[in-house]
Amino acid sequence: MQWGLIGASTIAAEYMIGAIRAHEGNSVDAVLSSSRARADAYAAAHDIPNADTELSVLLARPEIDAVYISTTNEKHRDQALAALAAGKHVLCEKPLAMSVADARTMVEAARKAGVVFATNHHLRCAGAHRAAKALIAEGRIGKVLSMRVFHAVMLPEHLRGWRIDNPAAGGGVIPDITVHDADTVRFYLDEDPRRVVAQAVSSGLGQGVEDSVMSVWTMPSGIMVQSHESFTHPFAGSGLEVHGSKGSIFARNVMSQRPTGTVTLVTEAGETDVPYESEGLYEYAITAFNRAVAGEGRPAANGIDGVKSLAVAMAVRQSALQGRAVDVNYEGY
């Protein structure tokens, strides 16, 4: 497939361009930026033949089969809808939109257009998470009782900008990290959180947006979920725990864009280190996306996954703002 990049972004430069090109027959043929200077410089730096400043120009290129959207959050909806109307397959960064209703509109537009629409939830693509989920499916920890996700990090300086000071662009730790953890919990447990209770603060980094949040989620099965996200914790580490009636899973340093970390199974028999595939997360996502385009299966995270992770994150934000428990609104999904 031939790809167009909507957004001359850091994540595309660091991960996605390489992941696309790692697949035989895939190429990056155009990049879009609102700045002519940035579009030209980005294209030159990454050997991309076309640099565009108008979305309509990129979408009119007949050679482009699919687009990857990694602009600021408030632009995702309109850019995705335009790409879908042009018949392009779409891989969109999370969160899909600024509201759950808008995200649903994007999914429905893709369905009507008959093209693949996916959310770039990279964590579920990690070998560590897939291995840990397999332990649950195999019954290795018995009945799942609770899950704890800790994803408190120090946001790197080069990624700050709008994420810490621009609510209109979708800034804040909740749309940036809580939405990932919501997808990860759904991936592990195969069910959707029903109600959340949360507290959020701006503890020094965030300016007009929250930079730390803790929440507790009610699952339909009765499993208890606790989640912690932050931009301000340099030494907290990240990971998750899943506790069951016959054992526990401890995954450390796995909430990452890289295939790193450890997975440990603890049962009555003792501790066991769990091996996992070390394939790149984004390479895995592109493989699944390409197969979906070819009619073979589904993307790693489809549009409905994006809607539901956003719904959980928005419920967490609403709960933190209102100081009460909030039912998650999935807009009918």
From TrEMBL:
Superkingdom, taxonomy of origin: Bacteria
Gene Ontology molecular functions: 1,5-anhydro-D-fructose reductase (1,5-anhydro-D-mannitol-forming) activity; nucleotide binding
UniProt keywords, alphabetically: Oxidoreductase
Pfam families noted in UniProt: GFO_IDH_MocA (PF01408), GFO_IDH_MocA_C3 (PF22725)
SUPFAM superfamilies reported in the protein's UniProt record: Glyceraldehyde-3-phosphate dehydrogenase-like, C-terminal domain (SSF55347), NAD(P)-binding Rossmann-fold domains (SSF51735)
Keyword Hydrolase in record: no
Known EC number: 1.1.1.292
Domain GFO/IDH/MocA-like oxidoreductase as annotated: residue spans: 129-249
Location of the Gfo/Idh/MocA-like oxidoreductase N-terminal domain: 2-121
UniProt protein name: 1,5-anhydro-D-fructose reductase
Organism placement in taxonomy: Bacteria, Pseudomonadati, Pseudomonadota, Alphaproteobacteria, Hyphomicrobiales
Encoding gene, per UniProt annotation: afr_2
